[in-house]
Protein backbone atom coordinates (compact mmCIF):
# COMPACT_ATOMS: atom_id res chain seq x y z
CA UNK A 1 0.00 0.00 0.00
CA UNK A 2 2.82 2.36 1.06
CA UNK A 3 4.59 1.41 -2.16
CA UNK A 4 1.53 2.32 -4.21
CA UNK A 5 1.24 5.70 -2.50
CA UNK A 6 4.89 6.40 -3.11
CA UNK A 7 4.45 5.48 -6.76
CA UNK A 8 1.46 7.81 -7.09
CA UNK A 9 3.37 10.66 -5.42
CA UNK A 10 6.29 10.04 -7.78
CA UNK A 11 3.94 10.18 -10.74
CA UNK A 12 2.31 13.35 -9.48
CA UNK A 13 5.71 14.95 -9.09
CA UNK A 14 6.81 13.83 -12.56
CA UNK A 15 5.28 16.71 -14.41
CA UNK A 16 3.18 19.66 -13.55
CA UNK A 17 0.57 21.71 -15.25
CA UNK A 18 1.86 25.09 -16.51
CA UNK A 19 2.07 27.51 -13.53
CA UNK A 20 0.05 30.17 -15.36
CA UNK A 21 -2.65 27.66 -16.21
CA UNK A 22 -5.86 28.62 -14.41
CA UNK A 23 -6.20 25.05 -13.19
CA UNK A 24 -2.66 24.58 -11.86
CA UNK A 25 -3.60 25.50 -8.29
CA UNK A 26 -7.36 25.08 -8.59
CA UNK A 27 -8.52 22.02 -10.48
CA UNK A 28 -12.17 22.14 -11.59
CA UNK A 29 -14.47 21.89 -8.58
CA UNK A 30 -17.15 19.48 -9.84
CA UNK A 31 -19.75 19.93 -7.03
CA UNK A 32 -19.45 23.72 -7.28
CA UNK A 33 -19.85 23.61 -11.06
CA UNK A 34 -22.84 21.29 -10.73
CA UNK A 35 -24.47 23.73 -8.30
CA UNK A 36 -24.01 26.55 -10.82
CA UNK A 37 -24.86 24.58 -13.95
CA UNK A 38 -27.76 22.14 -13.43
CA UNK A 39 -27.05 20.56 -16.86
CA UNK A 40 -23.83 19.19 -15.33
CA UNK A 41 -25.59 17.74 -12.29
CA UNK A 42 -26.49 14.34 -13.87
CA UNK A 43 -22.81 13.70 -14.66
CA UNK A 44 -21.50 14.30 -11.15
CA UNK A 45 -20.54 11.09 -9.34
CA UNK A 46 -18.70 10.21 -6.14
CA UNK A 47 -16.07 7.51 -5.84
CA UNK A 48 -16.12 5.03 -2.93
CA UNK A 49 -13.90 7.35 -0.85
CA UNK A 50 -16.23 10.30 -1.42
CA UNK A 51 -14.21 12.05 -4.12
CA UNK A 52 -16.32 13.91 -6.67
CA UNK A 53 -15.64 12.67 -10.21
CA UNK A 54 -17.15 12.24 -13.63
CA UNK A 55 -17.20 9.14 -15.82
CA UNK A 56 -14.40 9.89 -18.27
CA UNK A 57 -15.64 7.10 -20.54
CA UNK A 58 -18.95 8.97 -21.06
CA UNK A 59 -18.67 11.35 -24.03
CA UNK A 60 -21.66 13.40 -22.87
CA UNK A 61 -20.05 13.94 -19.48
CA UNK A 62 -16.69 15.09 -20.88
CA UNK A 63 -18.40 17.35 -23.44
CA UNK A 64 -20.58 18.96 -20.77
CA UNK A 65 -17.56 19.51 -18.53
CA UNK A 66 -15.66 21.19 -21.38
CA UNK A 67 -18.70 23.32 -22.24
CA UNK A 68 -19.16 24.64 -18.71
CA UNK A 69 -15.43 25.18 -18.08
CA UNK A 70 -15.18 27.26 -21.26
CA UNK A 71 -18.27 29.19 -20.23
CA UNK A 72 -17.43 29.60 -16.56
CA UNK A 73 -13.71 30.32 -16.81
CA UNK A 74 -13.38 31.86 -20.27
CA UNK A 75 -16.85 33.29 -21.02
CA UNK A 76 -16.92 31.19 -24.19
CA UNK A 77 -20.03 29.62 -25.73
CA UNK A 78 -19.11 26.27 -27.19
CA UNK A 79 -20.51 23.01 -28.47
CA UNK A 80 -19.55 20.05 -30.70
CA UNK A 81 -21.72 17.42 -32.33
CA UNK A 82 -21.70 13.82 -31.06
CA UNK A 83 -18.54 11.88 -31.73
CA UNK A 84 -16.24 14.82 -32.53
CA UNK A 85 -12.98 15.11 -30.63
CA UNK A 86 -13.71 16.64 -27.22
CA UNK A 87 -10.78 18.63 -25.80
CA UNK A 88 -10.00 18.92 -22.12
CA UNK A 89 -9.61 22.58 -21.22
CA UNK A 90 -6.72 22.34 -18.69
CA UNK A 91 -4.69 20.22 -21.10
CA UNK A 92 -5.22 22.46 -24.14
CA UNK A 93 -4.50 25.56 -22.01
CA UNK A 94 -1.01 24.22 -21.29
CA UNK A 95 -0.05 24.46 -24.96
CA UNK A 96 -1.34 28.06 -25.15
CA UNK A 97 0.67 29.07 -22.06
CA UNK A 98 3.81 27.40 -23.42
CA UNK A 99 3.38 29.37 -26.64
CA UNK A 100 3.06 32.53 -24.60
CA UNK A 101 6.37 31.63 -22.91
CA UNK A 102 8.06 31.17 -26.28
CA UNK A 103 6.70 34.43 -27.64
CA UNK A 104 7.70 36.43 -24.61
CA UNK A 105 11.17 34.86 -24.43
CA UNK A 106 14.06 36.54 -26.18
CA UNK A 107 15.35 33.30 -27.66
CA UNK A 108 15.12 34.49 -31.25
CA UNK A 109 15.68 37.96 -32.62
CA UNK A 110 12.62 40.17 -32.26
CA UNK A 111 10.59 41.78 -35.00
CA UNK A 112 12.20 40.29 -38.09
CA UNK A 113 8.86 38.67 -38.86
CA UNK A 114 5.68 40.22 -37.69
CA UNK A 115 2.19 40.63 -38.93
CA UNK A 116 0.94 43.88 -40.44
CA UNK A 117 -0.61 44.86 -37.12
CA UNK A 118 2.43 44.76 -34.85
CA UNK A 119 0.36 45.02 -31.69
CA UNK A 120 -1.40 41.68 -32.27
CA UNK A 121 0.11 38.23 -32.02
CA UNK A 122 -0.96 36.17 -35.04
CA UNK A 123 -1.09 32.38 -34.96
CA UNK A 124 -1.96 29.58 -37.35
CA UNK A 125 -3.78 26.57 -35.87
CA UNK A 126 -3.28 23.53 -38.11
CA UNK A 127 -6.31 21.25 -37.84
CA UNK A 128 -8.48 23.30 -35.54
CA UNK A 129 -11.23 20.66 -35.44
CA UNK A 130 -14.93 21.23 -34.81
CA UNK A 131 -13.96 22.31 -31.31
CA UNK A 132 -11.68 25.18 -32.47
CA UNK A 133 -10.28 25.06 -28.97
CA UNK A 134 -6.88 26.68 -29.48
CA UNK A 135 -8.07 29.82 -31.28
CA UNK A 136 -10.87 30.23 -28.74
CA UNK A 137 -8.47 29.94 -25.80
CA UNK A 138 -5.65 31.99 -27.41
CA UNK A 139 -7.95 34.83 -28.39
CA UNK A 140 -9.85 34.97 -25.11
CA UNK A 141 -6.77 34.60 -22.87
CA UNK A 142 -4.29 36.78 -24.75
CA UNK A 143 -6.18 38.57 -27.54
CA UNK A 144 -4.22 36.66 -30.20
CA UNK A 145 -5.54 36.54 -33.76
CA UNK A 146 -5.71 33.24 -35.64
CA UNK A 147 -6.07 31.56 -38.97
CA UNK A 148 -7.52 28.13 -38.14
CA UNK A 149 -7.41 25.47 -40.84
CA UNK A 150 -9.11 22.14 -41.29
CA UNK A 151 -10.01 19.70 -44.01
CA UNK A 152 -13.40 18.28 -43.10
CA UNK A 153 -16.85 19.78 -43.62
CA UNK A 154 -17.93 19.12 -40.07
CA UNK A 155 -14.82 20.74 -38.58
CA UNK A 156 -15.16 23.85 -40.75
CA UNK A 157 -18.90 24.14 -40.09
CA UNK A 158 -18.65 23.73 -36.31
CA UNK A 159 -15.49 25.79 -35.93
CA UNK A 160 -17.40 28.62 -37.61
CA UNK A 161 -20.40 28.11 -35.34
CA UNK A 162 -18.15 28.17 -32.28
CA UNK A 163 -16.39 31.33 -33.44
CA UNK A 164 -19.61 33.11 -34.35
CA UNK A 165 -21.15 32.21 -30.99
CA UNK A 166 -18.52 34.40 -29.35
CA UNK A 167 -18.76 37.95 -30.69
CA UNK A 168 -16.02 39.17 -28.32
CA UNK A 169 -13.41 37.07 -30.17
CA UNK A 170 -15.05 36.31 -33.53
CA UNK A 171 -13.23 39.17 -35.27
CA UNK A 172 -9.92 37.63 -34.22
CA UNK A 173 -10.38 34.20 -35.82
CA UNK A 174 -10.49 33.26 -39.50
CA UNK A 175 -11.52 29.70 -40.32
CA UNK A 176 -9.76 28.47 -43.45
CA UNK A 177 -10.69 25.33 -45.38
CA UNK A 178 -7.73 23.40 -46.77
CA UNK A 179 -8.54 22.94 -50.43
CA UNK A 180 -7.30 19.72 -51.90
CA UNK A 181 -8.45 16.51 -53.45
CA UNK A 182 -5.00 15.01 -53.43
CA UNK A 183 -5.28 12.59 -50.58
CA UNK A 184 -4.25 9.01 -50.76
CA UNK A 185 -5.13 8.36 -47.16
CA UNK A 186 -8.75 7.76 -48.07
CA UNK A 187 -9.84 9.99 -45.21
CA UNK A 188 -11.38 12.81 -47.19
CA UNK A 189 -14.54 12.40 -49.07
CA UNK A 190 -16.87 14.82 -50.84
CA UNK A 191 -14.21 17.51 -51.10
CA UNK A 192 -14.32 19.85 -54.07
CA UNK A 193 -11.18 19.25 -56.14
CA UNK A 194 -9.20 22.45 -56.20
CA UNK A 195 -5.61 21.38 -56.77
CA UNK A 196 -5.26 18.77 -59.51
CA UNK A 197 -2.89 15.86 -59.00
CA UNK A 198 -0.50 17.54 -61.45
CA UNK A 199 -0.64 20.80 -59.53
CA UNK A 200 0.11 18.98 -56.31
CA UNK A 201 2.94 17.19 -58.07
CA UNK A 202 4.27 20.60 -59.15
CA UNK A 203 4.28 22.10 -55.67
CA UNK A 204 7.77 23.41 -54.87
CA UNK A 205 10.24 20.63 -54.24
CA UNK A 206 11.83 20.35 -50.84
CA UNK A 207 15.48 21.07 -50.31
CA UNK A 208 16.02 17.77 -48.54
CA UNK A 209 14.18 14.55 -49.10
CA UNK A 210 13.46 13.91 -45.45
CA UNK A 211 11.31 10.96 -46.26
CA UNK A 212 13.85 9.12 -48.32
CA UNK A 213 14.35 6.57 -45.60
CA UNK A 214 10.77 6.57 -44.35
CA UNK A 215 8.28 4.19 -45.83
CA UNK A 216 5.40 5.88 -43.99
CA UNK A 217 5.62 9.35 -45.43
CA UNK A 218 2.66 11.71 -45.26
CA UNK A 219 0.08 11.36 -47.99
CA UNK A 220 -2.73 13.79 -47.57
CA UNK A 221 -3.93 17.29 -48.18
CA UNK A 222 -1.59 20.28 -47.90
CA UNK A 223 -0.77 21.38 -44.37
CA UNK A 224 1.07 24.72 -44.54
CA UNK A 225 2.53 25.04 -48.05
CA UNK A 226 -0.45 25.70 -50.31
CA UNK A 227 -2.56 26.95 -47.40
CA UNK A 228 -0.50 29.87 -46.08
CA UNK A 229 -0.50 32.77 -48.50
CA UNK A 230 2.76 34.12 -49.80
CA UNK A 231 2.57 37.48 -48.06
CA UNK A 232 1.21 36.22 -44.74
CA UNK A 233 3.27 36.54 -41.57
CA UNK A 234 2.63 34.66 -38.36
CA UNK A 235 4.23 34.69 -34.94
CA UNK A 236 3.63 30.96 -34.60
CA UNK A 237 1.89 27.93 -35.92
CA UNK A 238 0.52 25.23 -33.66
CA UNK A 239 -0.89 21.78 -34.21
CA UNK A 240 -2.50 18.90 -32.40
CA UNK A 241 -1.91 16.38 -35.18
CA UNK A 242 -3.82 13.22 -35.99
CA UNK A 243 -1.77 10.94 -33.74
CA UNK A 244 -2.64 7.52 -35.02
CA UNK A 245 -1.84 5.38 -38.04
CA UNK A 246 -5.05 3.37 -37.89
CA UNK A 247 -8.50 3.42 -36.33
CA UNK A 248 -7.67 0.31 -34.31
CA UNK A 249 -4.71 2.12 -32.79
CA UNK A 250 -6.87 5.20 -32.09
CA UNK A 251 -9.40 3.11 -30.19
CA UNK A 252 -6.88 1.63 -27.80
CA UNK A 253 -7.70 3.73 -24.75
CA UNK A 254 -11.04 2.57 -23.38
CA UNK A 255 -10.54 4.62 -20.21
CA UNK A 256 -11.52 7.91 -21.82
CA UNK A 257 -14.22 8.97 -24.23
CA UNK A 258 -12.83 12.06 -25.89
CA UNK A 259 -14.62 11.15 -29.08
CA UNK A 260 -12.75 11.73 -32.29
CA UNK A 261 -13.58 10.58 -35.79
CA UNK A 262 -11.12 8.84 -38.09
CA UNK A 263 -10.54 12.15 -39.88
CA UNK A 264 -9.53 13.78 -36.62
CA UNK A 265 -7.43 11.01 -35.14
CA UNK A 266 -5.86 9.08 -38.00
CA UNK A 267 -3.51 9.89 -40.83
CA UNK A 268 -1.30 7.73 -43.00
CA UNK A 269 2.02 7.40 -41.20
CA UNK A 270 0.57 8.84 -37.97
CA UNK A 271 1.84 11.93 -36.24
CA UNK A 272 5.43 11.28 -37.26
CA UNK A 273 4.54 11.60 -40.93
CA UNK A 274 2.25 14.57 -40.31
CA UNK A 275 4.83 16.54 -38.32
CA UNK A 276 7.59 15.59 -40.76
CA UNK A 277 5.48 17.27 -43.43
CA UNK A 278 5.16 20.35 -41.22
CA UNK A 279 8.96 20.38 -40.87
CA UNK A 280 9.35 20.11 -44.65
CA UNK A 281 6.83 22.90 -45.15
CA UNK A 282 8.62 25.03 -42.59
CA UNK A 283 11.81 24.99 -44.68
CA UNK A 284 9.85 26.79 -47.39
CA UNK A 285 8.00 29.10 -45.04
CA UNK A 286 10.89 30.05 -42.75
CA UNK A 287 10.27 33.74 -43.47
CA UNK A 288 6.53 33.53 -42.80
CA UNK A 289 6.66 32.23 -39.21
CA UNK A 290 8.68 33.17 -36.17
CA UNK A 291 7.99 29.86 -34.43
CA UNK A 292 6.77 26.53 -35.76
CA UNK A 293 5.32 24.26 -33.10
CA UNK A 294 3.47 20.99 -32.75
CA UNK A 295 2.15 18.73 -30.06
CA UNK A 296 3.56 15.20 -30.07
CA UNK A 297 1.75 12.21 -28.61
CA UNK A 298 4.61 9.74 -28.51
CA UNK A 299 7.86 10.51 -26.83
CA UNK A 300 9.66 8.13 -29.16
CA UNK A 301 8.85 10.48 -32.05
CA UNK A 302 10.39 13.46 -30.30
CA UNK A 303 13.99 12.41 -30.81
CA UNK A 304 13.60 11.50 -34.44
CA UNK A 305 11.72 14.70 -35.28
CA UNK A 306 14.30 16.78 -33.43
CA UNK A 307 17.04 15.16 -35.51
CA UNK A 308 15.16 16.08 -38.66
CA UNK A 309 14.96 19.66 -37.49
CA UNK A 310 18.72 19.98 -37.09
CA UNK A 311 19.14 18.38 -40.52
CA UNK A 312 17.12 21.15 -42.17
CA UNK A 313 19.16 23.88 -40.50
CA UNK A 314 16.90 25.32 -37.81
CA UNK A 315 18.60 27.70 -35.39
CA UNK A 316 16.78 26.55 -32.28
CA UNK A 317 14.68 23.64 -31.01
CA UNK A 318 12.65 23.75 -27.81
CA UNK A 319 10.68 20.95 -26.22
CA UNK A 320 8.38 20.64 -23.26
CA UNK A 321 6.16 18.06 -21.61
CA UNK A 322 2.45 18.71 -21.14
CA UNK A 323 1.09 16.72 -18.24
CA UNK A 324 -2.50 16.32 -17.25
CA UNK A 325 -3.38 13.60 -14.80
CA UNK A 326 -1.74 10.48 -16.15
CA UNK A 327 -1.52 11.71 -19.71
CA UNK A 328 1.68 13.16 -21.09
CA UNK A 329 2.10 14.93 -24.36
CA UNK A 330 5.13 16.78 -25.67
CA UNK A 331 5.55 20.14 -27.32
CA UNK A 332 8.12 20.70 -30.05
CA UNK A 333 9.06 24.18 -31.30
CA UNK A 334 11.61 25.38 -33.81
CA UNK A 335 12.64 28.49 -35.68
CA UNK A 336 14.94 29.50 -38.48
CA UNK A 337 15.54 32.99 -37.11
CA UNK A 338 18.85 33.97 -35.56
CA UNK A 339 18.97 33.22 -31.87
CA UNK A 340 19.71 35.72 -29.15
CA UNK A 341 21.98 34.28 -26.51
CA UNK A 342 20.98 34.72 -22.91
CA UNK A 343 23.56 36.76 -21.08
CA UNK A 344 23.50 34.42 -18.11
CA UNK A 345 24.80 31.42 -20.02
CA UNK A 346 27.55 33.07 -22.01
CA UNK A 347 30.31 35.41 -21.01
CA UNK A 348 31.10 38.36 -23.22
CA UNK A 349 34.25 39.89 -21.76
CA UNK A 350 35.15 41.10 -25.22
CA UNK A 351 33.97 40.01 -28.58
CA UNK A 352 37.26 38.36 -29.57
CA UNK A 353 37.24 35.98 -26.61
CA UNK A 354 34.15 34.11 -25.55
CA UNK A 355 33.31 31.02 -23.59
CA UNK A 356 30.42 28.86 -22.52
CA UNK A 357 29.87 25.84 -20.33
CA UNK A 358 28.46 22.50 -21.41
CA UNK A 359 26.79 20.92 -18.41
CA UNK A 360 25.03 17.62 -17.84
CA UNK A 361 27.11 15.66 -20.32
CA UNK A 362 26.69 11.93 -20.39
CA UNK A 363 29.53 9.70 -19.28
CA UNK A 364 30.23 8.60 -22.86
CA UNK A 365 30.69 12.21 -24.03
CA UNK A 366 34.06 13.58 -23.03
CA UNK A 367 36.18 16.49 -24.18
CA UNK A 368 37.36 14.56 -27.20
CA UNK A 369 33.79 14.01 -28.42
CA UNK A 370 32.99 17.68 -27.99
CA UNK A 371 36.19 18.55 -29.85
CA UNK A 372 35.03 16.27 -32.67
CA UNK A 373 31.64 18.00 -32.54
CA UNK A 374 33.33 21.40 -32.95
CA UNK A 375 35.32 20.13 -35.89
CA UNK A 376 32.26 18.58 -37.53
CA UNK A 377 30.25 21.77 -37.08
CA UNK A 378 32.76 23.86 -38.97
CA UNK A 379 33.65 21.14 -41.50
CA UNK A 380 29.98 20.70 -42.45
CA UNK A 381 29.99 24.34 -43.48
CA UNK A 382 33.05 23.70 -45.63
CA UNK A 383 35.49 25.47 -43.32
CA UNK A 384 39.01 24.23 -42.99
CA UNK A 385 39.75 22.88 -39.50
CA UNK A 386 42.72 21.43 -37.73
CA UNK A 387 42.14 19.47 -34.58
CA UNK A 388 44.91 19.05 -32.04
CA UNK A 389 43.98 16.37 -29.53
CA UNK A 390 46.98 17.03 -27.31
CA UNK A 391 46.03 20.65 -26.63
CA UNK A 392 42.28 19.98 -27.10
CA UNK A 393 41.95 22.74 -29.66
CA UNK A 394 40.45 23.18 -33.09
CA UNK A 395 41.86 25.88 -35.37
CA UNK A 396 39.46 27.14 -37.95
CA UNK A 397 40.05 29.27 -40.99
CA UNK A 398 37.19 30.96 -42.78
CA UNK A 399 36.59 33.08 -45.81
CA UNK A 400 33.80 35.66 -45.89
CA UNK A 401 31.69 33.14 -47.82
CA UNK A 402 32.29 30.49 -45.18
CA UNK A 403 31.12 32.85 -42.46
CA UNK A 404 28.08 33.82 -44.49
CA UNK A 405 27.23 30.16 -44.95
CA UNK A 406 27.19 29.66 -41.19
CA UNK A 407 25.31 32.87 -40.54
CA UNK A 408 22.65 31.97 -43.08
CA UNK A 409 22.56 28.33 -41.98
CA UNK A 410 22.89 27.21 -45.56
CA UNK A 411 24.31 23.85 -44.60
CA UNK A 412 22.95 21.30 -42.19
CA UNK A 413 24.70 21.86 -38.90
CA UNK A 414 25.10 18.62 -37.01
CA UNK A 415 23.18 15.47 -37.60
CA UNK A 416 22.19 14.40 -34.12
CA UNK A 417 21.84 10.83 -35.25
CA UNK A 418 25.51 10.76 -36.24
CA UNK A 419 27.82 9.35 -33.66
CA UNK A 420 31.16 11.02 -33.74
CA UNK A 421 33.76 8.38 -33.15
CA UNK A 422 37.10 9.90 -32.30
CA UNK A 423 39.46 8.61 -34.95
CA UNK A 424 42.49 10.79 -34.46
CA UNK A 425 44.68 10.33 -31.43
CA UNK A 426 46.69 13.38 -32.25
CA UNK A 427 46.57 15.68 -35.22
CA UNK A 428 48.57 18.81 -35.53
CA UNK A 429 48.88 19.17 -39.25
CA UNK A 430 48.53 22.88 -39.77
CA UNK A 431 49.54 22.86 -43.43
CA UNK A 432 46.11 24.00 -44.57
CA UNK A 433 45.96 26.95 -42.21
CA UNK A 434 46.11 30.14 -44.19
CA UNK A 435 45.55 33.32 -42.30
CA UNK A 436 45.68 35.64 -45.27
CA UNK A 437 44.06 39.04 -44.96
CA UNK A 438 40.59 37.95 -46.12
CA UNK A 439 40.52 34.93 -43.84
CA UNK A 440 39.75 35.02 -40.17
CA UNK A 441 41.29 32.41 -37.90
CA UNK A 442 39.40 31.17 -34.88
CA UNK A 443 40.70 28.90 -32.18
CA UNK A 444 38.27 26.82 -30.15
CA UNK A 445 39.54 25.06 -26.99
CA UNK A 446 37.78 22.53 -24.82
CA UNK A 447 38.60 22.22 -21.09
CA UNK A 448 37.49 19.56 -18.66
CA UNK A 449 35.91 21.09 -15.54
CA UNK A 450 34.23 18.67 -13.17
CA UNK A 451 32.94 15.33 -14.51
CA UNK A 452 30.02 16.03 -16.83
CA UNK A 453 30.97 19.67 -17.33
CA UNK A 454 33.20 21.18 -20.00
CA UNK A 455 34.28 24.72 -20.72
CA UNK A 456 34.48 25.74 -24.37
CA UNK A 457 36.53 28.83 -25.17
CA UNK A 458 36.82 30.61 -28.48
CA UNK A 459 39.10 33.37 -29.64
CA UNK A 460 39.70 35.30 -32.81
CA UNK A 461 43.29 34.85 -33.90
CA UNK A 462 43.37 37.67 -36.42
CA UNK A 463 41.84 40.64 -34.65
CA UNK A 464 42.28 42.98 -37.60
CA UNK A 465 40.20 40.79 -39.86
CA UNK A 466 36.97 42.45 -41.02
CA UNK A 467 35.27 39.13 -40.27
CA UNK A 468 36.03 39.18 -36.58
CA UNK A 469 32.63 40.91 -36.11
CA UNK A 470 30.87 37.66 -37.06
CA UNK A 471 32.69 35.71 -34.39
CA UNK A 472 30.21 36.27 -31.57
CA UNK A 473 27.25 35.14 -33.69
CA UNK A 474 29.12 32.09 -35.00
CA UNK A 475 30.24 31.18 -31.51
CA UNK A 476 26.68 31.42 -30.19
CA UNK A 477 25.50 29.14 -32.96
CA UNK A 478 28.25 26.68 -32.04
CA UNK A 479 27.07 26.79 -28.43
CA UNK A 480 23.47 26.07 -29.45
CA UNK A 481 24.55 23.12 -31.61
CA UNK A 482 26.80 21.61 -28.93
CA UNK A 483 24.17 22.14 -26.24
CA UNK A 484 21.65 20.32 -28.38
CA UNK A 485 23.98 17.50 -29.21
CA UNK A 486 25.55 16.87 -25.86
CA UNK A 487 23.41 18.35 -23.09
CA UNK A 488 20.07 17.33 -21.68
CA UNK A 489 17.46 19.47 -23.42
CA UNK A 490 14.56 21.15 -21.73
CA UNK A 491 12.11 23.99 -22.39
C1 LIG B 1 -6.39 15.59 -33.41
S1 LIG B 1 -7.48 16.68 -34.26
C2 LIG B 1 -7.18 18.18 -33.39
C3 LIG B 1 -8.41 19.04 -33.23
C4 LIG B 1 -8.22 20.22 -32.27
N1 LIG B 1 -7.16 21.09 -32.71
C5 LIG B 1 -7.93 19.72 -30.87
O1 LIG B 1 -6.82 19.93 -30.37
O2 LIG B 1 -8.80 19.12 -30.26
C6 LIG B 1 -6.63 16.88 -35.80
C7 LIG B 1 -7.37 17.76 -36.79
O3 LIG B 1 -6.55 17.94 -37.94
C8 LIG B 1 -7.39 17.97 -39.08
N2 LIG B 1 -6.54 17.73 -40.25
C9 LIG B 1 -6.08 16.56 -40.78
N3 LIG B 1 -5.31 16.81 -41.84
C10 LIG B 1 -5.25 18.17 -41.99
C11 LIG B 1 -4.61 19.05 -42.89
N4 LIG B 1 -3.85 18.60 -43.89
N5 LIG B 1 -4.76 20.38 -42.72
C12 LIG B 1 -5.54 20.87 -41.73
N6 LIG B 1 -6.18 20.07 -40.84
C13 LIG B 1 -6.03 18.75 -40.96
C14 LIG B 1 -8.43 16.90 -38.79
O4 LIG B 1 -9.57 17.08 -39.58
C15 LIG B 1 -8.68 17.18 -37.32
O5 LIG B 1 -9.72 18.12 -37.13
From TrEMBL:
Residues 1-28 are annotated as: Disordered. GO terms for molecular function: methyltransferase activity. Keywords: Methyltransferase, S-adenosyl-L-methionine, Transferase. Residues 1-11 have a biased composition (Basic residues). GO terms for cellular component: nucleus. Its EC number is 2.1.1.-. The keyword Lipid biosynthesis does not apply. One of its GO terms (biological process) is rRNA base methylation. S-adenosyl-L-methionine binds at residues 92, 127, 150, 240. Belongs to the methyltransferase superfamily. METTL16/RlmF family. This is U6 small nuclear RNA (adenine-(43)-N(6))-methyltransferase. It comes from Vicia faba. The lineage of its organism: Eukaryota, Viridiplantae, Streptophyta, Embryophyta, Tracheophyta.
Amino acid sequence: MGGKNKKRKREEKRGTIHPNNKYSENPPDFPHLASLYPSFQPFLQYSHNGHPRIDWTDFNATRELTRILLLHDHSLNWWIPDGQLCPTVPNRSNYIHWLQDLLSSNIIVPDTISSADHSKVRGFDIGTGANCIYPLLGSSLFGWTFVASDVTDVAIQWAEINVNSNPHVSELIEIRRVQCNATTSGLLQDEEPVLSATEVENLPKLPLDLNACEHNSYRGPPILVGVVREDEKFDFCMCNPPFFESLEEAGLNPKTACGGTSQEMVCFGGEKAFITRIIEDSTQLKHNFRWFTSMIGRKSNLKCLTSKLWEVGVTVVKTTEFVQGRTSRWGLAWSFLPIVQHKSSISLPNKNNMSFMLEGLQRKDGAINVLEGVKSYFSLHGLSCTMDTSSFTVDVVATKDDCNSILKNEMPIINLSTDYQPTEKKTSDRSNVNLSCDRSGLCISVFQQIPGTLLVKGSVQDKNSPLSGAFSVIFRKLEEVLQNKFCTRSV
